[in-house]
């Protein structure tokens, strides 16, 4: 029997101030759920994966120490008595143990349903990577993928039952569109220029050197092109190699004689900054090196704002850029990228058509729409789980205004969940 009591949903994930795509994704999704008046039937909180992060957001209700295995079982004990359902935002790099295996301890201890959102579905995983995701899929109630192309992979390589798998797209912000030329006019160096942009945390896997090499070929014919490389170096990359990769990109631009055509913005961009740069761009470029990439949040954002996208043919790009919505270049091939850029610059009518096609799909991916799909899935999952339980097997939930009082080790913290 349905009631008006809000269902409590916890997200196990990284979270800001952690600077990573997964943290941003979770924050955007939770904000969209909380801000949507039609989803007031649920209440959200965060179980934040942490090393040394300090959290000030009141939605962070529990800290899970990434490398402390006991912390995962304590987290499950807390979830069992405080929430109705957990969504595990799964990425191999955020959980402890080999291939993130500690998250299995958490999943096995849960006595409430949980959903797994897969952010990386590898075509050629190691045996351990395969076993971790396979076990999560076996234990979960539902598995969400943000790429339809990942559905057969989850079924085949990871033995996850098809009835469990659901497609929900990556969300994109919904903000008022502003004239591209008007935005360019605010930046003297960009006024009357053709803008190519790439954004996100910078790492060698992004293949940005091929973008610079392609630019060097294009400017011989189109000298009004500017390439914006937006974002700070990925923290893991910076820890291992400092700013060597970024410096190599700057040196390459200098060597090729296009330093004046390449601008670096070395910072972790706010959502508003990302959207501004996207809206003033004529093309969005993702020259990634690996065909494995199942989802790209940056490409999803570019879709949401109707930009022409030029990309290497990784899985997500192939899925999103079909039916004339963008152009695919060969991997590690600056000539192929340059040909795509010239196609856009030399064919304004085709460019306009691609933008219309991209925008049509992008507008179905707003966070509001995505949040509604998650809420519907969560409520259905909770109701089905409760209907399958007898009254004497259900676990009583601790009221939201009360904190847990049992003992945790020093690496785990409990905070009151926002009512």
Automatic annotation (TrEMBL):
- UniProt-listed Pfam families: Glycos_transf_1
Q: What SUPFAM superfamilies does the record point to?
A: UDP-Glycosyltransferase/glycogen phosphorylase
The protein's name is Glycosyltransferase involved in cell wall bisynthesis
Gene Ontology MF annotations: glycosyltransferase activity
Record the organism: Propionispira arboris
The Glycosyl transferase family domain sits at 188-355
Give the residue spans that cross the bilayer: none
Which CDD domains does the record match to this protein?
GT4_mannosyltransferase-like (cd03822)
Query: Where in the sequence is the signal peptide annotated?
Result: none
**Keyword annotations:** Transferase
